[in-house]
């Protein structure tokens, strides 16, 4: 599992009302806090999903 996916799983496992830091979790998994924040807030997605949306021909 990629570090970004592990970090998102860590965020999803937390209970409502838990105190946590996006920067702290990003540092724990060795990823950019900006990338984690954007992914967590659904502002960006994985590159593969972006490429699939732009693909004009169907995959063979």
UniProtKB/TrEMBL annotation:
InterPro entries: LysM. CDD domains: LysM. This is HTH psq-type domain-containing protein. It comes from Bimuria novae-zelandiae CBS 107.79.
């Amino acid at each position: 599992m990629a570090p970004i996916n592990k970090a998102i799983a860590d965020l999803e496992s937390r209970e409502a009302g838990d105190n946590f830091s996006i920067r702290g979790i990003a540092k724990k998994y060795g990823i950019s806090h900006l990338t984690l924040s954007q992914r967590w807030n659904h502002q960006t997605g994985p590159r593969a999903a972006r490429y699939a949306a732009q693909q004009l021909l169907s995959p063979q």
